[in-house]
Structure formats: C-alpha cells, structure tokens
Write a structure and sequence with these properties.
Oligomer: heterodimer
Distance between the termini of chain A: 97 Å
Largest sheet of chain B: 6 strands, antiparallel
Helix content of chain A: 10-25%
Radius of gyration of chain A: 37 Å
Number of helices of chain B: 3
Largest interface: A-B, 69 and 62 residues
Number of helices of chain A: 24
Family (chain A): Belongs to the GcvT family.
Number of strands of chain A: 48
Helix content of chain B: 10-25%
CATH class of the largest domain in chain B: Alpha Beta
Organism (chain A): Paracoccus versutus
Shape of chain B: globular
Number of domains of chain B: 2
Protein name (chain B): Heterotetrameric sarcosine oxidase gamma subunit
InterPro entries (chain A): 2Fe-2S-bd_N, FAD/NAD-bd_sf, GcvT/YgfZ/DmdA, GcvT/YgfZ_C, GcvT_C, GCVT_N, Sarcosine_oxidase_asu, SoxA_A3
CATH topology of the largest domain in chain B: Gyrase A, domain 2
Distance between the termini of chain B: 52 Å
Radius of gyration of chain B: 17 Å
Order of helices and strands of chain B: EEEEEEHEEHEEEH
Shape of chain A: elongated
Pfam families (chain A): FAD_oxidored, Fer2_4, GCV_T, GCV_T_C, SO_alpha_A3
Structural class of chain B: alpha+beta
Strand content of chain B: 25-35%
Chain lengths: 977, 196
C-alpha cells in the first residue's frame, strides 16, 4: 500500500522503525498504527482470550486491539496503543499476547475451543480439584490470557509532578475546545487548553469539510497562532486530563518524552494537578461499531477512523474498501476515500430509504452477514432483501453512530442520561460541579454545532465567574444531521464481537442474560466486558443496547454505564510523581545522625525517623552481643542515647497549668516550678493513649514530651483542645521537637559525666533531685535544658541543647566520659532497659489498655476532670482485671515471645480460656534470661504462679512464672540516688 | 562562647549552596527564628519596630522580618542571629506574648533567581499546590511539598524561601534539588510562563 495524497504528515522526512523485527518507514506526524497501515500491515495483535488476529479499529485513544510492546530493555512498555504511539526514528515495537509468531500464534487453538471459553467460563470450569487452582489453572490461564509483558526492571526514567491553577480548563482541542479556549482567552481570564493528541484540532484534522471555505487545518493553525500569542492561555499538548476530582481539581499527565527514543535529560512524564474554577469538557465522541459475525478481522475498523487515516495520515488500510452504516456519517467515509482514489466496493446501509451521495454502489436496507480472511479481511457477505452476495474488499468501515466522551462528567458518580433523539448517552446534570460539556461530548457533533457549543459553554462558564466574554466570530461550517436509525447488532449464528479487547460477543451477553446476570454491573463482572486498558470505550453502550434487546426494556431502563478515573491508562511511575527509591517518602534524621554514622551504627526506621538501633564494635558478630554490652555498660557506668525523636511541645500562657490538668489524667497545675512529672493522656473513651513527661520551667511555661510515634497526633489533639474545646483558656502551643537535640544520659556515672560539661551547675541530689528540671549552660556558655528523669531505672538525666549542637554534644559526652565507661546505646538497648524496669511503651499503650491495666489506675485524678477521666470509670473498664505483670521462663533457656497469649496450665488454649497476652519481651543481660511484660487476668494477685504462653503459629507453649514487672530495682532507689 | 562546634541542618560544617540554571539555593543556617503568640487580651506588638503582617503575609523591617502563622501568631525571623538566644531578646521586649525559640526547629533554604520572577513561578508550579498569581512578593503560607510540611515565603519577585522541619532537611534539599534539576533539564514549556 502506498500513501494517498494530502494528509498532515511531513513527507520531506522519513522515520525508520521496526515491528516484530521487520524494518519499515514512516513520516513525522504518523502514529505507529498509521505508519504500519501505510506499509500494508493490518495485523497488529492477537486478541485476549481467543488469540484472534486483530488490527486497529480506531485512530485514537479508545483503541482496544492494536496493543504493542514499545521500546526495549527496562523501557519496554506493554499494552501501548499503536493508534496513539507517535512515530519516532528508531522506534521498536513488538506484537504481544502470542506464542510463536504473530501470523502463526500457537495459542490460536483457543479460538477452536471457544465453546469452552464462554462468558464466566473460569467460574465454572476450573473449580476442581481445588489443589489445582493455584498451581495449574491460574498460571496457565494467566499465561494464555496475558496482555503485554513487563520488563521486570526498575523504570530508568524520571518523572515529575506539578500544580496548575486557572479560571477555565478546556479539555480537548477540537472544534468545541478551540472555540471555548478562544472565547475565554480573549476575555483575559487564565485558560489551560489540554489535548491528548500531539496536534491541536481534534476531529477537524480528520475531516475534509472546509471552515469558511478553507481547509480546516488552516483555521486551526490561525487559532493556534492567536492562542499561542496570548500570555493568559497555556496550551498543553500530549496531555491527558484523566480524572475530575473534588473542588475543581483535575489529574493530568503530560507526556514530555514519549515521542522521543528516550527523555533528553528531563522527565518523561509530568503528573499535573490542575485546579480550575470552571471546566469545559470538549473531549469529542467515540464512534461505535455494529457487531456482526466475524466482525473482528484486521481491516474492519470504525468508519470515522478509516476516514481519519485517509485524511490526516494519507493512508488507506486497503486499495478497495467498503462501508457498513446506519447513518449518513458513514457515507462521508466512502466519499472521502473515493476522492483519494480508493476503490469503494460498496456502502451497505441498514436504512431502507438510504440514498447514495456520491458515485459508489449502495446497498440500502442491507447488512453484513459474515466476513472472510484469516489474517486480514478479504471478503464481506452483504445480505439484502433476503439475498446474499459476497464482495471483495480489504477493509470495511463500520459506522454505528457516535457516543459522547462523557467519561469525566461521570467521575463524581454523575449518571449519563439516554437521549432518544441522539440514540446516545449524554452527560447528566449531576456531574462534577463547574464542569460543562460542549461539542460532540455533549451530543452536539456537527462542526457548526461544536464550534457554537464550545464558544457558548465558555461564555456561560465565565458568566458564572462574573466575566463577560463576547462570542467570537465563528467560521461557516458543515451542519449535517446524522439521520441515524439504530442498529445495535446483526443477528446471526456466527460470533459477533461487542468488546474486542475482552473477546466478549453478542452470544456471551445472551448467555449472561440467560443466567440472570442482567444488571449492567453483573454483566460486566460476569463477561469481563468493559474491563482492561480500554475500559470498554468502544463496547459498553453497544453491550447495553444488546442487553436491552434481550430484556425487552428500553435502553434508558436497562441501565447506564459510568466511568471512574483514569480516562486512559496512567503509569504507576508518573503517579509516584518523581519521588522513588530511598526518596519515596521523607526521612527524619536525628541531630546525632552524622556522628552515629561515623560510629558505624545500624539504623532502624521508626515511622519517618531513622534511629540508631545499636552501635556494633569490632569483634561483635551478633546484634545481641552489642545490645547486651550497651545495656550492661549503662547499668554499670553510663550510657548515652539520642531521644530527640520524642515529641516536645512548648506550652505557655496564664492558663497553661489548667489546660494541662484537663489534658492529662493526672494533675499538672500542682507541679512546682523546676520539677517534672510523668503524665498519662487518655482518649475520650477512657482508654490510655500517650505518655510522657511534663516539665514546669516557669509558672506560665511548661514543656511536655510525647512518645515518638504520637508526637504529631498529640500536638494536633492539643491544638484541637486549645482552639475548639477550651478557647477561653489563655494557652499558646508550639512544637519544639526538632529545635532541641535531647540526649539521655543514664547510669550510676551519669552525674559524674554531666558534672564535666555543665557550667558550674550544682547537680547534687539536694540541689537537683529526682524529677528536677532547669535551664542552664553547658560547654562554656551553650544554653541547655536539663531534666532528671529516667526510663532505664538508673540515675538518669535528659539534656537538651539547640539541635545544631547535638552532634558535638554527643561526641563530647562520649569522649569526656571515656574513663566512666560512657557508651552510646541505640533503640534496642533502650527497649531492653525499659522492659527490665517495667516501663510501659508503645507495645503496652496499644489503644486497648487502660490506666488501670497499666497499673496506673490511681493516677486518674478524682479531684479534677480531664479528657477521658469519666469514661475511664465506666463499669466495663472498671471490671477489667487484666493488669501489667512481669513474666519470666520457668526454664531460663526458654524464650518469651511477644504476641503469645496466656493460659492456665492444663487449660484448652482458645478464646474462651484466654487470660491475656505478652506485649513486650527481650533478653535481659542483667538477669541472663528472657523476660517479658504482659497483661494477665488478676495478675497482681498471681505473683509466683506458673502459666503458659502459647504461640500456636510456631507451635510453642512455654511455662512462665508471673513476677513483678520491675525486674530491676523495684524500690526505685537507683534513680533517686 | 561554647567550645562545641555546630553543624548545619544538612549535617555539614558549612551551609549548602548550589546553582541550578537560573536559580541558586542557599541554606540559610544563620537565620534565627522565634514564634510569637499573643496572650489573651494582649495588644498586637511591633517587635523591633516591625508592623506584624496579616494572614498569608510576610513583612520585613530593619534586621527583622515576620510571617503570619495563625490567629495572633507569627514567626519572627532575624537573619544572621542563629548563634544568639534570639527568642530571649525578643521575649524581653514583648510582655503579654508567648515567645518560643524555633531557630533549630527549621531548615531554611533561600532560592534566588538571576532571571527575574519567571523561574521562581515555574519552580512554584512544580513544588507545591500554590497559585503563583496569588503568591506575589510579601506572601507566606504553610503548605505541603513532597509530603513535607513547609513554609513558603515569597521574599521578592525573584526570591523564594522554603522552611522545612530541620530533621527533614536532607529530604527537603533532595526534593528541591531534584525538582530544579529536572526543570533545568526539561525543554522550555510550549508557551513560556503564563503571566497575568
């Protein structure tokens, strides 16, 4: 096949490309599909289920058939529509979903076995034996019914994201979109004009009707030049607006480099979030086909697509073509192709009163009965007045009417409305607020209608924004009615495809009807109609019409089909917006991170934080060795740990104490200045929520700490309480978590170490007792805060300095304390120290426990009210007998496994006999065996009793002795020394 | 004067400074910050003579600047005074206000264009869901950039400051650098930068 005359391809340049290894050439302006057709290639793929030979049926993004694997190596992209893949020099494409060659696909045997693959076949066929499902059936089906293959390599390209704002977003740059954009841009408002194509003009590029007597592309070029000159309008080519979301937000993908062999240093695609005050949906319409027997052979395509290939790309799929239509629009295809010298075998028009509008054979009141041609169409059977004849032709254009592209109008669950006049669904009135459909997307598809509708829609949208936009002078354009007489399918014995991509036929829909899968939602799931990459753009309405025939109900009562984003497939890479790998989400680093790295620390993710987990030394081969050493060094000398990640909130104001009294279950207003108190917060329902310390720096100034995990939620909760619950209180809050580096200095030598860095501050027990706090200076004048608090049970302090000095202070403490055994420790040792001491942490404050269960029931003050206090005294809460206990194995060699459930010895181990669970466990280097904390029924009264910890997942059942949760220094003498 | 040596938010001895085409990002390690909140019934003060700005605004005075962060709340900036206890200095002259040191709570990155405002507008487009037309000089807002809470301050037509949590400085720097690098590498947009 050679090129026809005319067209919008640049014949002065040739582009070389390969398909399935064979070399071809095309021109700039071509798509892969148009270039292949120009080279006489109609066969481009195999169908999903039956592996039937397939060629393109469309010339746009609705394409269900011509899916290829584009590019090589890591850039290999499956399921790329050849109809929108822009040709570039060196393009390499392969057909997919075949075993063997495209011409001789071994899986085509499925077509012979089609009686076994009817709708719902896998629900019925592959049931037994059950063991075969995962190992045999599923892999075999997946291999047979695959689409393209993934490269299985990381995406080498970069992606980006961005945000745009405008008064009017115009989606689609065809006749309606251009008229809308022109109207709005001239009014001076901010306009974004987006089109999925690489060239503006939409359907105007595919038709021959003149505008004001000149070829339409000339008018398009004039408008484009004006729009480009206006600073308030932004043209976005190769940009698909794929979804309409809340509040005028739209998702769009701009393909910056998909038309190039690879990105030229910049991102491949950009994900845009476009916020528009008003939106015009001018997405055009998709032509629908008419199912008849063997209607899926390569060469059979939509009549409008055939015309687009001829007019825009100067290509005919064959030297001799025919048209099958139920409306006047189909005749245009015959006229346009005949004008380009293509032979017209005939126009088969299902309307009895059809008349020819040109010099071609017309078969009025006729339909297509069947077709021939194994790898491409060769003959069609025309049935007319009860007679049948066969015509030779290599391509057939099918014109069944046009479906408005109303997809985005139904993204807020807007229901399309059936129009009896148009025989099509049009956008309903319950679509996204601010979105107006125009042109063919609204059902106004003649060029004159589309131009006028676009301009009027823009004027209407801007009027809502109090902007007066005069209508521009619009060119004279064709305004022909389609005179469509519905024909939804040609009844017959052979298989007639409705959904090409999912191999769903009229018979499958009849079967669904027969098996009572009649609602459209059931029809879709049962037959897979409308699924996969094209989402039924060329199938859904036709399927609905076929079902309506079967049920005898009008289409309007049969149901509608609505759409969800995305309009066309969007790659996961671009949805990531450019943040990938280690940068997929932000990381928080502690002030001593660089120092810890220099010490060879192993880090652990704690939410967004990276914390030092432990600091291995030379010769230590197992993490336990390191952690045991860090724990023992802390209990014997002094350990230092970065605890900056604990949330810190600065609380000021005359009512700061009253505010904290209401926030915590225990009293805080009574705290003396210069002292710190442990505090527990409850949820509204009385369940324990978060704990920390509260330090009173001045009468009207507190600093509270939270757990690492709840730092954000607690701060938010405090702001809610301040702003919404008690706005009458004089309280000001601000987070200072990041501002201060805070280090825990714990162990019998803690005081001696700190004495070496403080600037003449008296650390004696008398001057600075347990739970004291103060502002001071350290290391020659550096402002700092000191808190005498202990999580480890040892004599301990937390010292805070401005974050920029945290790294240096850590290094200084370790250096200055070398002779005192100063040892940095990480989160593992931190955990061991607190479990040995019996302190609750996140594992115990898990949202299922109360203050009473934690052994802190008396902390819930009865003298004042606080959030959750009343609810914590509910009957059910008070009746709870499970309390925090310590647990240790009867046989010291046995483990204590957190998550295990606790049972009486000899009891059956089930939900009814469950007595509690183990929340935390570790190896205690101090005791030399495993220990744990857990919640046990009547635990306080069962000290010494032996119970069983069951871990059915691993078949473990370990006898444990119930002990005090305070394995270390239960009297608390050490921390008060 | 302490004998401890501070490091920057990015963990280095000296502030980061890198150029990407028309834009240059500099880590503003010397910026002192203090939050200022009115106590109940307090009159709005004028710290060091600065008229505090209204919602969404940033104002600059003599050696001091401030942006609005909430009803009766501001963040006060003092360039070059991070080593001092700026919050204490500020608090001394602000009876009836709650002042909290925020200097080390934030990492500040100053972005300056040497080709006018267009590159700053283009960067805003890629960085955060902020309409550049509503974010002229003197604007400040709290928003989200690459999943991080940040303050954006339009200090001048050709200047933008980004303040993020100090602990996230590395991630924020990476996000800014990657955005600018991609932008520099990409072809110029079809229609230039829309300016209304």
């Amino acid at each position: 096949m050679t090129r026809l005359s005319g067209g919008l391809v640049d014949r002065s340049r040739s582009l070389s490309f390969t398909f399935d290894g064979r070399r071809y050439s095309g021109h700039p302006g071509d798509t892969l599909a148009s270039a292949l057709l120009a080279n006489g290639v109609r066969l481009m793929g195999r169908s999903f289920k039956y592996h039937r030979p397939r060629g393109p049926i469309s010339a746009g993004s609705e394409e269900p058939n011509a899916l290829v694997e584009l590019r090589d190596g890591a850039r290999q992209e499956p399921n790329t529509r050849a109809t929108v893949a822009e040709l570039y020099d060196g393009l390499r494409a392969r057909s997919q979903n075949r075993v063997g060659s495209l011409r001789f696909d071994l899986m085509a045997v499925n077509d012979r076995l089609s009686p076994f693959f009817a709708a719902g076949f896998y629900y019925k066929t592959f049931m037994w034996p059950r063991a075969f499902w995962e190992k045999l059936y599923e892999p075999a089906i997946r291999r047979a019914a695959g689409l393209g293959r993934l490269s299985m390599q990381p995406d080498p390209d970069e992606y980006d994201k961005g945000f745009l704002h405008c008064d009017l977003l115009v989606i689609g740059a065809g006749a309606a979109g251009l008229a809308a954009a022109l109207t709005a841009a001239r009014a001076g408002v901010r306009v974004i004009l987006a089109d999925e194509d690489f060239r503006l003009g939409g359907r105007l590029l595919a038709e021959t009707h003149p505008l004001d007597g000149a070829p339409a592309p000339e008018w398009v070029a004039g408008v484009e030049a004006e729009l480009a000159s206006l600073p308030n309008l932004r043209i976005m080519r190769r940009t698909t607006v794929f979804g309409a979301f809340d509040h005028g937000v739209h998702g769009a993908v701009e393909r910056l480099a998909d038309h190039l062999p690879q990105p030229q240093g910049g991102p491949r695609q950009v994900l845009w979030r476009i916020t528009a005050r008003r939106t015009i949906l001018a997405a055009g319409a998709t032509e629908r086909h008419i199912p008849f027997a063997n209607n899926d052979r390569p060469g059979i395509m939509l009549a409008g697509a055939m015309r687009a290939y001829a007019n825009r790309w100067a290509v005919s799929p064959a030297e001799r073509v025919a048209v099958f239509t139920n409306n006047d629009d189909g005749h245009r295809t015959a006229l346009d192709l005949a004008a380009k010298g293509v032979g017209i075998a005939g126009v088969i028009d299902s309307r009895a009163d059809a008349v020819a509008v040109g010099d071609y054979p017309l078969f009025a009141g006729a339909v297509i009965g069947d077709t021939r041609g194994r790898l491409g169409l060769t003959r069609i059977e025309v049935r007319q007045h009860g007679r049948s004849q066969w015509l030779d032709c290599g391509a057939l254009g099918v014109a069944g009417g046009w479906n408005p592209n109303l997809h985005l109008a139904s993204h807020h669950r807007g229901r399309p409305v059936w129009s009896d006049a148009l025989h099509a669904f049009v956008p309903g009135k319950d679509g996204p607020a601010g979105l107006i459909a125009a042109g063919a997307a609204e059902g106004r598809g003649s060029t004159a209608q589309a131009l006028r509708s676009g301009a009027e829609a823009a004027r209407r949208a801007l009027a809502e924004l109090d902007v007066n936009a005069p209508l521009p002078d619009l060119p004279q354009a064709e305004d022909q009615a389609q005179n469509l007489h519905p024909l939804w399918h040609v009844p017959g014995k052979g298989r007639a495809w409705v959904d090409f991509q999912n191999d769903v036929t009229v018979k499958d829909i009849a079967l669904a009807h027969q098996e009572n899968m009649r609602p459209v939602e059931h029809l879709k799931r049962w037959t897979t109609l409308g699924m996969a990459t094209d989402q039924g753009k060329t199938a859904n309405v036709t399927a609905l019409a076929v079902m309506s025939e079967l049920t005898g109900k009008p289409i309007a009562q049969t149901g509608t089909t609505i759409f969800r984003p995305p309009y066309t497939p969007v790659s996961l890479s671009v949805l990531g917006g450019g943040d990938s790998g280690a940068h997929f989400r932000p990381r928080r680093l502690t002030p001593t991170h660089a120092w810890a790295q220099s010490q060879g620390a192993v880090f652990v993710e704690v939410g967004p934080w990276m914390r030092a987990q432990y600091f291995p030394r030379a010769g230590e081969t197992h993490w336990r060795q390191t952690v045991d050493r860090e724990v023992l060094a802390t209990r014997k000398g002094v350990g230092i740990c970065d605890v900056t990640t604990l949330g810190k909130v600065d609380v000021q104001g005359a009512d700061a104490g009253a505010f904290l009294d209401r926030l915590y279950c225990n009293a805080m207003a009574s705290l003396r200045v210069g002292m710190t108190r442990y505090g527990l917060m409850l949820r509204e329902d009385g369940v324990a929520w978060d704990d920390g310390t509260c330090a009173r720096l001045a009468a009207d100034h507190y600093v509270v700490t939270t757990t690492t995990a709840q730092a954000g939620p607690v701060y938010r909760h405090m702001e809610f309480a301040r702003q919404c619950l008690w706005p009458e209180l004089d309280v000001q809050l601000i987070s200072t978590t990041d501002a201060w580096a805070q280090l825990s200095v714990a162990g019998p030598n803690a005081r001696r170490l700190l004495e070496r860095i403080v600037d003449g501050f008296d650390l004696s027990n008398e001057a600075f007792p347990f739970m004291a706090c103060a502002g001071l200076t350290v290391c020659g004048g550096l402002r700092a805060r000191l808190f005498r608090i202990s999580f480890s049970g040892e004599l301990a302090y937390e010292i805070a300095v401005p974050a920029r000095y945290g790294d240096a202070l850590m290094a200084r403490l370790v250096e200055a304390g070398a002779d005192l055994g100063a040892t940095p420790y990480g989160t593992e040792a931190l955990g061991v120290l607190r479990i040995e001491k019996g302190h609750a942490a996140g594992n115990e404050l898990n949202g299922q426990t109360s203050a009473q269960m934690l052994g802190m029931g008396r902390m819930v003050s009865a003298k004042k009210d606080g959030i959750g206090a009343v609810m914590s005294r509910r009957e059910g809460m008070l009746a709870e007998t499970r309390v925090l206990v310590g647990l240790q194995p009867v046989d010291p060699a046995q483990p204590v496994v957190p998550g295990s459930h606790l049972f009486r010895q000899g009891d059956a181990q089930d939900t009814w006999t469950d007595q509690g669970w183990i929340s935390s466990a570790c190896h205690s280097p101090h005791l030399g065996h495993a220990i744990g904390l857990g919640f046990l029924e009547n635990g306080a009264a069962r000290m010494g009793e032996v119970i069983v910890a069951a871990n059915p997942l691993q078949g473990q059942s370990v006898p444990l002795r119930v002990v005090s949760p305070h394995f270390i220094d239960p009297e608390g003498g050490r921390l008060r020394d | 004067m302490t004998d401890l040596t501070p490091i920057t938010a990015l963990g280095a001895a000296t502030p980061a400074d890198q150029r990407f085409g028309a834009l240059r990002i500099t880590e503003n390690a010397g910026l002192a910050l203090a939050s200022l909140a009115l106590r109940r019934g307090a009159a709005q003060p004028a710290p060091l003579g600065l008229a505090l700005p209204g919602p969404g605004r940033w104002a600059e005075g003599q050696g001091i600047a401030a942006f609005w962060t909430g009803p009766g709340q501001w963040m006060v900036e003092a360039p070059g005074r991070a080593a001092e206890d700026f919050a204490a200095v500020l608090a001394a002259g602000m009876p009836g206000c709650s002042v909290t040191d925020q200097t080390d709570g934030w990492a500040a990155f100053e972005i300056v264009s040497d080709r006018g405002e267009a590159p700053i507008r283009a960067l805003l487009e890629r960085l955060a869901n902020i309409d550049p037309d509503g974010f002229g000089p003197g604007s400040a807002t709290r928003t989200l950039a690459h999943h991080m809470g940040v303050f954006l301050i339009r200090r001048a037509p050709d200047r933008l400051a980004v303040l993020g949590m100090r602990s996230m400085a590395g991630s924020l720097w990476h996000a800014l650098a990657a955005t600018l690098r991609r932008q520099g590498a990409a072809a110029a947009p079809d229609d230039g930068f829309p300016i209304v």
